[in-house]
Amino acid sequence: MRISTAFDVSKNFDLVIIGGGCSGLSLAMELCRYFDKAIPFPRTLIIEPRSHYINDRSWCFWDLDDQIDTELVSKSWQVWEFSSESISHKHSSLEGWRYHHVPSSNFYDKAEKIISKNPHIKLQKNSRVVNESYSPDHIGLTLEIYDRYKHTESLEITTNLVVDTRIPPEVDFSVATLKQIFYGFEIKTKNNHKLKDNAMVMSNMRVDADGFLFDYILPLGHDSLLIELTRFAVTSIHPKTLRTNALELVNKVCGDSAYKIVREESGLIPMGIPRPEKIKDHRIIFAGLGAGAARPSTGYAFRRIQNWAKICAKEIISKGKAANNLPDKNTLKWMDSIFLRTIRKNPKIAPMLFMKLAQNVQADVLVRFLADKPNKSDLASIIFSLPIMPLMSSAFMEFFAQIQATIRNKKCL
Ligand SMILES: Cc1cc2nc3c(=O)[nH]c(=O)nc-3n(C[C@H](O)[C@H](O)[C@H](O)COP(=O)(O)OP(=O)(O)OC[C@H]3O[C@@H](n4cnc5c(N)ncnc54)[C@H](O)[C@@H]3O)c2cc1C
Fold first, then answer.
1. Which residues, judged by CB distance below 6 Å to any ligand atom, belong to the binding site of ligand 1?
2. Ligand 1 binding pocket mutation candidate from 46, 48, 226, 286 (most atoms within 8 A of CB)
3. Less Cβ crowding at N or C end of the chain, within 10 Å?
């Protein structure tokens, strides 16, 4: 099996992107924006184990209408809903924020189309990195490339720059303050469903013996729904353990109406993990979920990855260096951390906390907070909307954790 004649000549690349998933392909698409400009374009190889892409997940996020890629977004909602114990709060924005849905198949199709038009970038599917070596003048990677009969071939390549989107070996999701675990079904109903066209982003928030959970229901069309069961848990339970309950939820939503399952999706997203230590070798950077791409308090990562990809591509083109995930502002980090600690310690109050936010904070303020773009007064509104007492002890714990970390860092210097 050949990587391609053009790429075989030297097996030496300016940039290797390990992993053609959300981060890897986002970066490749951003790099392609510079293709027509009169600059030397980095010879780039993307290494991806998959043989082909399927619609394996849906990416949702809040954004202003003029900021979205209309080619990717298949559906947007004007109204989103939070509910618990039959009380519901509906939010809609005056500033033009909506909740958007990108089926991953739209994203993968677009990425493959763009990459195939650029002779300097190759997406090598059916391949994985099995070994890495670092010397002062280059990085060596051993690839295992296989065909559909599972015959494998080993290939040595060299590069000057690596963006690695795999989960780094030292990153342990089990140490995350909380884990967002979900299992969901996209279904087609025989008759039109009767749900309103609202995104039920945190519906029927409740607590059981295993902690905080809620339903996530998106009416994708008049006869199609995405229905997921989500937990914020302290322990790393396998998403598959939620399947039976998620299916019960589908049956509850559909009642007597017939439906067929179109696809299933599930995952575990770490909420609040320490970022991997910055590697001293500036020729390699980690990106994506394992490098802390998800917002700690929400688990949302898609939009953050797009923002990182823009900046990283610009750095690669202009300086020949890749950029790490963008850090959150300290206040945001602090608030997220207190919120997560509080829910971890006392999951029973989670529905009350989220409902207070939905009840007391204006839609635009809350959505700016959720979309990582709060201003100072938004942060104040968020803080004052919540009951002080349950958050106080977590705030103290966070304060002491920060002092301990500072002392530790000083001792290390
Ligand atoms: C089902 C699901 C739904 C989600 N929904 C949302 C959402 O609605 N909104 C949101 O903001 N976030 C969402 N997320 C979170 C996040 O946006 C996604 O997990 C996103 O795909 C993370 O991007 P990534 O590049 O870090 O990982 P991935 O997209 O998983 O990419 C990593 C890539 O590395 C490849 N790889 C692994 N090992 C090797 C190897 N040895 N060599 C080469 N390549 C390798 C993998 O095949 C994969 O393609 C969701 C996550 C899941 C799992």
1. 18-23, 47-50, 57-61, 128-129, 165-166, 265-267, 269, 288-289, 293, 300-302, 305
2. 48
3. C
Tokens read off for 250? 């589908």
* Residue 87 CA: distances (Å) to CA of 351, 358, 380: 11, 11, 25
Q: Domain 5-53+104-171+279-319's class?
A: alpha beta
Q: Which residue has the tokens 């204006």?
A: 362
Low-confidence residues of the chain, pLDDT below 70?
Answer: 1-10, 38, 276-278, 389, 392-413
Burial 161-183 (b: 16+ CB within 10 A, else e): bbbbbbbeeebeeeebbbbbbbb
* Residues facing 17 on adjacent strands: 46, 163
- Tokens at residue 162, please? 């690596």
* Per-residue pLDDT, 326: 87
Question: Tokens representing 200?
Answer: 């039920």
Q: Ligand 1 centroid vs 254 CA: distance in angstroms?
A: 30
**Scanning the structure block, which residue is given the tokens 């591509």?**
313
Give me the count of residues in the chain: 413
Pocket test for ligand 1, best of 59, 75, 144 (most atoms within 8 A of CB): 59
Q: Which atom of ligand 1 is nearest to the CA of 128?
A: 42
SS3 75: strand
What's the fold here for domain 58-103+172-271? Answer: D-Amino Acid Oxidase; Chain A, domain 2 (3.30.9)
Distance from residue 22's CA to the centre of ligand 1 (Å): 6
Distance 49 CA to ligand 1 centre (A): 13
Mean pLDDT over all residues of the chain? 91
Atom of ligand 1 nearest to the CA of 288: 26
Residues 6+ positions from 296 with CB-CB distance below 8 Å: 177, 271, 272, 273, 328, 333, 336, 337, 340
Query: What is this structure's pTM?
Result: 0.93
Contacts by residues 199-203 (CB-CB < 8 Å, ≥ 24 positions apart): 199/60, 199/77, 199/79, 199/80, 199/81, 199/99, 200/80, 200/81, 200/83, 201/80, 201/81, 201/82, 201/99, 202/81, 202/82, 202/83, 202/354, 202/358, 203/81, 203/82, 203/83, 203/88
pLDDT for position 232: 97
Q: How many CB atoms lie within 10 A of CB 335?
A: 23
Strands 259-271 and 178-189: antiparallel
Q: Where are the domains of the chain?
A: 5-53+104-171+279-319, 58-103+172-271, 330-412
